Prior knowledge:
Blueprint: E1 9-15, H1 19-31, E2 37-40, H2 81-102, E3 113-115, E4 118-123, H3 125-138, E5 148-150, H4 153-159, H5 161-164, E6 172-177, E7 181-183, H6 185-197, E8 202-204, E9 207-215, E10 218-225, E11 231-241, H7 247-254, E12 263-274, H8 277-280, E13 286-288, E14 302-308, E15 311-321, H9 334-337, H10 344-353, H11 355-366, H12 369-377, E16 389-392, E17 396-403, E18 407-411, E19 414-418, E20 424-429, H13 437-448, H14 450-463, H15 475-489
Parallel strand pairs: 1-2, 1-11, 2-8, 4-13, 11-20
Antiparallel strand pairs: 3-7, 4-6, 5-6, 9-10, 10-11, 12-15, 12-16, 12-17, 13-14, 14-15, 17-18, 19-20
Amino acid sequence: MTFISTTRSADVVLVGGGIMSATLGAFLKKLEPSWSIVLFERLDEAGLESSDPWNNAGTGHAAYCELNYTPQAKDGSVNPAKALGINEGFQLSRQFWAHLVGDGSISDPSGFIHNVPHMSFVIGDAHADFLRTRYEALHPNPLFSTMEYSEDPAQIAAWAPLVMEGRGAGRVAATRVAEGTDVDFGQLTRELVGYLAGNGVEVNYDTDVSGLERARGGWNVSTRHKSSGERGSIHAKFVFVGAGGGALHLLQDSGIAESKGYGGFPVSGQFLRSTDELVALRHNAKVYGQASVGAPPMSVPHLDTRYVNGKRSLLFGPYAGFSTNFLKNGSLWDLPLSIRPGNIIPMLAVAKDNMDLTAYLVKEVAKGHEKKIEALREYYPDASGGGWELITAGQRVQIIKKDQAKGGVLQFGTEVITSRDGSIGALLGASPGASTAVPIMLELMQRAFPKNFKGWEPKLSEMMPGYGIKLNDHPDLAAEIAANTSAVLGLAAAAH
């Protein structure tokens, strides 16, 4: 791996060394091995920002436990469509990872993925009624057929002892999917980048991409090596801006029409972490609850089993906060410098329409350690105030975009943006993010390389047997693929 790029031109430049760039790079290297690819990362290793395991919850987002993916309508009903879409996307990600393990591109899946059951847990009559309605909407679908529901305290205690010990009387309810997963996306990213570096991709660390300028046949990409200050430039036929929170500035810098009107709203966060092995060994689940009124979706409380560097620990949070940084390792000027004439109106409209979110964030920032422990005890009643370390999570930059009716809307999700000519693409937004990196990058490739994509589809189907198929409509095929994928990844198969 080089540190100061000497390459003057490339077919593809990847900006950012996170899970998105790594996934796109792996796809392109498999599909077009002769293409020249160069990757630039501003930190000194891949996967250290949003992909880092301590900067996210590591949930393999399959919509098993995340209640915000199935909001309740005014009539009390629950529409399973979004949850089904997210689950289908995660199945594709699993299939691609299994392909990479199977052909030796990734050495050991136990370094990044483990079985951890996914649970939803709620307290009180209204929330329990909602959870039952959600279960009844999801369970008939083949992709959710192994979901279990219970209001029996003894059963819930068997699933997650720490959640029930010391809990007072009152109605509780939970769902559980035993084949849920914990994913260390930082390690997965490093596995993917290692594969790229070993197959002719030039990987440059400690290097900022400082500018993008249209040029004949593509883009001139300006770079600066942070340690030496040395500047460089490389011509790329295609540029992918996968720089997390840093993507908005570069997208704006590109000047493409498709970037106009976009803004960003950064949300920071913290987790409580316990590395007490005696405690961690008594909890084997990712337990998600209901978000507070006004809370952004990424602030849904959860008590998680995590595997990082082979060690098991517990994580609780997140506690939302606010910082003007767009990256954890970014600048306080990130938000003010993102304001442009084209996005002022959407940003002001979002500020006016989201006062409850602002109030929630102010309240969260003011919480002291004891208040944070009180929140933990809602999900782990016997938790000790000591033994829990407060860590800072990664930044999430939510999308602000134009809206004809409101002027602007705050969007909690991910959005792929490509120029009309397909020469540049970028990803904005957050959850479910890393878990659905594979379908997100497939969408980007279809937009950016329309002339190549049809010819790639047979190879994509070889890599991912469920590609182009709604597995929920083909239960036998879904079960077969899931069993094969689980076997390759070293995971327990679902008990259908």
